[in-house]
Amino acid sequence: MQSGFPFTKFADRLASLVELSSDDVDLLAKMPATIGHFGSRDIVARKGDRPTVCCLLLQGYLCWTVDCESQQQITSLHVPGDIPDLQALSAPLLQFDLTAFGPVVVAFVPHRFFRELSEASARLSRALSLLMLTDVWCLRNWICNLATRDALARVAHLLCELTVRLQAIGQARDFRFLSPFTQTDLAAACAISAVHANRTIQELRRRKLLQWNSRTIEITDWSGLVRLAGFQPDYLGLRKPSLQEAKDFNASLAEIRI
Amino acid sequence: MQSGFPFTKFADRLASLVELSSDDVDLLAKMPATIGHFGSRDIVARKGDRPTVCCLLLQGYLCWTVDCESQQQITSLHVPGDIPDLQALSAPLLQFDLTAFGPVVVAFVPHRFFRELSEASARLSRALSLLMLTDVWCLRNWICNLATRDALARVAHLLCELTVRLQAIGQARDFRFLSPFTQTDLAAACAISAVHANRTIQELRRRKLLQWNSRTIEITDWSGLVRLAGFQPDYLGLRKPSLQEAKDFNASLAEIRI
DNA sequence: TGCGCCATCTAACAAAGGTTAAAGACGAAT
DNA sequence: ATTCGTCTTTAACCTTTGTTAGATGGCGCA
């Protein structure tokens, strides 16, 4: 299972951003990688580190976190296929902690490999740049989320983003996915208190937008959730109109139920 | 005044991050630039644009803004010497608006020039990477600021960051600087209402931490402001310990007053 | 000189969300 | 099966901040 696995995960993610040729995929297949396993809350890379490898996330979730004013704050969220520390490639001093949520598998890939990729293929170089850029877009959007939405819409928006990003890598096609996040984690991401996170989830449940039971989240009314959140996924840089696909899927679900 | 001016501004900024050799400065001096002037609230580059030049800020302030839920949100702040759209170099699709605050002078510099710089000098390449990276660090810190501090500390933190960044480029040495920002702008940056921004500023004045009159801000108690904000400037990546310098300066001021 | 515009300021009230504390619920380990 | 710890849920109360609306003040311009 392990052999070839890391690069396909990454190829899927890049393919969600740009169209890849078979030459590109051949180049990616040469990726040297060391596999690492982590448990929930393990810190994969720490503030102050100067790693010479990037973390390609294969399974689970990684978040950039920071202990600020005596509470942990989540500043971004990464799904399999992402390389959270790609932008640190040429200036590898970490200013934040990279924390695992749930059981996590990563591939450590030498910085050198990505530099060689960039030189070997203009398209791959562009793809890597886009990958970095979407992280920045996500950060600005995260700021916008915290700044302009109330707790309910904020949580809804986070779940919309998570769903679409999972769908872009072929997961959560049925709007259902496993989540290692506790309500306290959700609170740390959305900058609300844990108690209010609970109130908010219950309100989302009451509105029949989702179910969230014991580590499984299911979005039961996608277009309702999108409307509540004011979610516009263009900032994710995704090639496919996942939202439209999703709407179609949801519509078909609705038909079945009627 | 115009000739040579753009590159010195930029060299100052890079020198705040890494030590530059005279060769590096010679390379920077070859920077081709077109000067542009903008008025307050002008949009220098717009969401959806695909520019082939970067914006080197020479005078005034540029902010990345986004109209989200019918209100303008500021997601980052840039001072002279910064290149707000440097990270868009290789994937130049803009997802946000770059807005001028106050009268602004920029130098438009072709993307090509920065690619050539990176190839010509490893140190300059590293400096450019650091410049991009500090933007990302600032974004994560901005998230942390919105998420973990109340309005008073949030405003204090923003002013601390602004002061240190200005000092790093040789401005605001005496903790006094011109500001084109209205209280409404401050509110848009800190995600508070304009009314509350006013209350907050008055509280900062009442505590004798600063004066803010008709476009001029003066920090009158730097260490008090730093303490209130819980400000730790390491995320700015600055080479010089500006904070220490500042503390010394403030201490000397205090002595004079006694 | 006076007008209009915009920024600042003030006050009263309303709403959203934080805090504390304690009670259930669930799962893992013994 | 029991116990422990963590996660979820509930309730009461309180603080911060938002909202609305109007007053004040400065500045450019006719």
What does this structure look like?
The structure is a homodimer of 258-residue chains. With 258 residues, chain A is of the alpha+beta class. Chain A has one domain: Sandwich (Jelly Rolls). The first copy, chain A, has helices spanning 5-15, 22-29, 111-120, 122-148, 151-168, 183-190, 194-206, 222-229, 242-257, and strands at residues 34-38, 43-45, 53-68, 71-78, 97-110, 176-178, 210-213, 216-219. In chain A, the strands form 2 sheets. In chain A, strands 1, 2, 3, 4 and 5 form a 5-stranded antiparallel β-sheet that branches. A 3-stranded antiparallel β-sheet of chain A has the order 6-8-7. In chain A, strand 7 (210-213) and strand 8 (216-219) form a beta hairpin. In chain A, helix 5 (151-168) packs across helix 7 (194-206) and helix 5 (151-168) crosses helix 8 (222-229). Chain A is globular. The termini of chain A are far apart. The interface between A and B is large, with 40 and 40 residues. The structure holds a DNA duplex (30 and 30 nucleotides).
